[in-house]
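User: Sequence in, structure out. Go.
Assistant: Echoing your sequence, followed by the structure tokens.
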Amino acid sequence: MSEMASSPHYFALLDRKYRGSNLFYSIAHCDADQLTRAWNAVQWLAAKDLDHAADANGVGFSKSDTTIGHRAAKASLVAAHRSEMLAIVLLKLARKYRRQLPPRYLVDQSTPAQQRLDV
């Protein structure tokens, strides 16, 4: 096999930067749009968390998440789409702090039919 050719069996495992890789998004339990919203949500939360959880003001990250949240916020969107671990951290933080987020940053957005229901 030539150096440039790769086995199709290993393609999805070796080329993590390929945005269409279903393997990457299935490991992170999301799709590309959800990951982008999670990245935006963590950026928004970090901007609101100016005190790094020094005061219990109900804004931004908790004391246990402030370090990882601010580190994740420093990562680029490209890095989020290339790194499984970063993607998982972003998704977990965005889902954990969903009550603080504006609707456009919610990772698991409901369908229009679900939004109309008052349960």
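User: And one key feature?
Assistant: DSSP finds seven helices and no strands in the chain.
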